[in-house]
């Protein structure tokens, strides 16, 4: 796989950090999760990773961590700015002995600036990014698209991109660097096209009334007879023509409808058939009309079956395969591997770092490290 041989240390945190680590693990990196010894559970994205439990507040635990970092390529730090510096584990401390280390820092508002110490969640980050203001309609308050935009798109993926870029640059310079990944800035960057096309005709109206945000009847979603939904993206004339053909509506009839009237009529029409019936009608029409698939049935759709886009994990949950697909070095979903227990690999990792059994036992006894009870010593 593309990242085979790359060693990543992920500081256990909330969703953005673990998903960033999962992206790297899916493409071959060895990811070791470092967590506090009192933590009893790992994130749902722990599959395929290794786990070591350390007490970073005691000198011995800190010493183990530094030794681990001396042989690592990347660290994913999701703590607030300054937390690891106070422990003597900041970039200057770790890169002094490992100048090739890539120190990725993933936070809500970034490592500098007025908000660097402020708490926040995805909703706050996308609110401050300028993107949330676009997600509203009919004068109602903006609605959060769960935590996809800030945590995962602007956070995890942008941070993973930064890590891959830094790894590539290191092949030329031989040096590591610090990555300052702000979820607020990342969310804004993901929306770059929207910012830079603000004065195009498609955005000239109020949010919720423009072409691409549900303001037009031929680019919207509609409920079906069985309480499911269809997505209509028939923007261009050729697709609109096929769309109307599927609905058995003439072009002339459609053109005389007022915008609001058209929206209501389409709602009524879509309620006359089930989602599957509409799928059958539009199956052979190039009209940009598709079903809105839910998490339970998405894997069974013919598109995803034909590409094997999803799998079922150990908890019987539907999960997506890694993307994008690489022709020679494709990723392998770490979610297909067993989940890990806190401290499950502590002894294995300590041994690989050169610690002897008596030393490891002593560190366990003085609460510097924690090893899962099923680990062999």
TrEMBL record:
Segments spanning the bilayer are none
Question: What's the source species' lineage?
Answer: Eukaryota, Metazoa, Ecdysozoa, Arthropoda, Hexapoda
Which BP terms in the Gene Ontology apply to this protein? bile acid metabolic process
Which family does the entry's similarity section mention? Belongs to the CoA-transferase III family.
Query: What's the superkingdom here?
Result: Eukaryota
What's the protein here called? (African queen) hypothetical protein
A Pfam family per the record: CoA_transf_3
Give a Gene Ontology cellular component term annotated to this protein: mitochondrion
Q: Which GO terms describe its molecular function?
A: alpha-methylacyl-CoA racemase activity
Which InterPro entries does the entry link to? CoA-transferase_III, CoA-Trfase_fam_III, CoA-Trfase_III_dom3_sf, CoA-Trfase_III_dom_1_sf
């Amino acid at each position: 796989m593309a990242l085979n041989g790359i060693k990543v240390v992920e500081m256990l945190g909330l969703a953005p950090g673990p998903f960033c680590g999962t992206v790297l693990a899916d493409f071959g990196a060895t990811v070791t999760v470092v967590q506090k010894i009192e933590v009893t559970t790992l994130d749902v994205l722990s599959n395929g990773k290794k786990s070591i439990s350390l007490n970073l507040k005691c000198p011995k635990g800190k010493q183990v961590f530094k030794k681990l970092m001396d042989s690592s390529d990347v660290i994913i730090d999701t703590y607030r700015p300054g937390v690891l510096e106070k422990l003597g584990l900041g970039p200057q401390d770790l890169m002094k002995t490992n100048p090739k280390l890539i120190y990725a820092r993933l936070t809500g508002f970034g490592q500098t600036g007025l908000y660097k110490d402020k708490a926040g969640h995805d909703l706050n980050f996308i609110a401050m990014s300028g993107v949330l203001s676009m997600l509203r309609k009919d004068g109602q308050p903006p609605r959060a698209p769960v935590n996809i935009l800030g945590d995962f798109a602007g956070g995890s993926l942008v941070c993973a991109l930064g890590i891959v870029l830094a790894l590539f640059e290191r092949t030329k310079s031989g040096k590591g660097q610090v990555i300052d990944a702000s979820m607020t800035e990342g969310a804004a960057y993901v929306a770059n096209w929207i910012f830079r096309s603000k004065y195009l005709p498609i955005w000239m109206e109020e949010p919720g009334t423009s072409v691409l945000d549900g303001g037009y009847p031929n680019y919207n979603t509609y409920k079906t007879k069985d309480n499911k939904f269809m997505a209509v993206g028939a923007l261009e004339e050729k697709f609109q023509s096929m769309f109307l053909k599927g609905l058995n509506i003439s072009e002339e009839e459609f053109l005389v409808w007022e915008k609001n009237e058209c929206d209501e009529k389409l709602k009524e029409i879509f309620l006359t058939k089930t989602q599957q019936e509409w799928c059958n009608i539009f199956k052979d029409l190039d009209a940009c009309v598709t079903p809105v698939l839910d998490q339970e049935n998405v894997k069974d759709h013919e598109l995803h079956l034909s590409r094997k886009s999803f799998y079922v994990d150990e908890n019987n949950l539907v999960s997506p395969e890694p993307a994008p697909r690489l022709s020679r070095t494709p990723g392998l979903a770490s979610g297909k591997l067993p989940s890990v227990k806190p401290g499950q690999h502590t002894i294995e990792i300590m041994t690989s770092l050169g610690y002897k059994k008596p030393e490891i036992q002593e560190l366990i006894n003085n609460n510097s490290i924690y090893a899962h009870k099923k680990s062999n010593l």
